Each structure stands twice: as C-alpha cells, then as structure tokens.
C-alpha cells in the first residue's frame, strides 16, 4: 500500500451586526486532494491494475476472422480503429484490453476526493 496523507481544514469567522451574530464557516476534507488508495491488487500492488491485461497477447487472442459490422447495430466506431467497417482481431483485442483495464480501475479502491462545505450561521 502506498503511504497515506490526509489533511482537513475547519475554519469559522463570526461578526456582530446589531443584535445578530453572523458567522461564516468553511470545512475542507482532504485539503490537498491527495489520492487515498484504500485497496490494491495483490499481484501488482496497484489500485488500478490486477496484472491480467499484461499477460494477454494478440497472438493468443484470435477469436474470429475479420467481421464486417458496418451496417449492423453491433458496429461501434470506437472498436474500429481505422474506420474501414471491419473489426480485425487486433482491433478487437485492443478494445478488450482497454475495456478490461477500465473495469479493474474500480473507484471504490480509492478514498474520497476533496470535499468543500461552506456554511452561514445566523444567531439572534
């Protein structure tokens, strides 16, 4: 696990205006917006990579031959890197690898980002 550093700020300022007491408060959690790693994968020690994608290779990926999906609902231009209407094994492999890495980069592996709360107090 990487080291953790957390800093908060809590400040308030009060003013007296006639019979009323006005206040402004500011609370900032994770003041410096540090990345708080809560959980890591055992194989890599990273919160966003389990190491599986590094073991994949295009040579072992060949599932199908080139598929023409241009005029079907299955066509997605993101998967077709050269936009020729055919999704090759290499393009399918690259799309799978990016999707898999997106899947293992789980937001719950990280703690909360900076949170800022501003408040107004009125006392009379």
Architecture overview:
The protein is α+β, with helices and mostly antiparallel strands. It has two helices and five strands. It has two domains: 1-37 and 111-124, no CATH class; 50-104, no CATH class. It has a three-stranded antiparallel beta sheet with strand order 1-2-5, with no helix packed on it. Strands 3-4 form a two-stranded antiparallel ribbon. The mean pLDDT is 85.
Question: What are the defining features of this structure?
Answer:
2 domains, alpha+beta, 26% strand, 124 residues
Topology record:
Layout: E1 9-17, E2 20-29, H1 52-55, E3 67-68, E4 86-87, H2 89-104, E5 115-123
Antiparallel strand pairs: 1-2, 2-5, 3-4
Secondary structure tally: strands: 5
Order of helices and strands: EEHEEHE
Oligomeric composition of the shown chains: single chain
Tally of separate helices: 2
Which band does the percent of strand residues land in? Answer: 25-35%
Short overview:
It contains 2 helices and 5 strands, in the order ββαββαβ.
């Amino acid at each position: 696990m990487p080291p953790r550093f957390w800093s908060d700020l809590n400040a308030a300022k009060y003013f007296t205006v006639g019979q009323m007491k006005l206040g402004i408060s500011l609370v900032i959690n994770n003041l410096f917006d540090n990345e708080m790693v809560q959980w890591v994968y055992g194989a890599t020690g990273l919160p966003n990579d389990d190491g599986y994608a590094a073991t994949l290779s295009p040579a072992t990926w060949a599932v199908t031959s080139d598929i023409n999906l241009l005029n079907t609902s299955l066509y997605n231009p993101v998967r077709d890197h050269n936009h020729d209407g055919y999704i090759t094994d290499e393009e399918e492999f690259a799309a799978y690898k990016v999707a898999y890495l997106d899947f293992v980069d789980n937001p719950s592996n990280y703690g909360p980002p900076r949170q800022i709360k501003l408040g107004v107090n009125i006392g009379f």
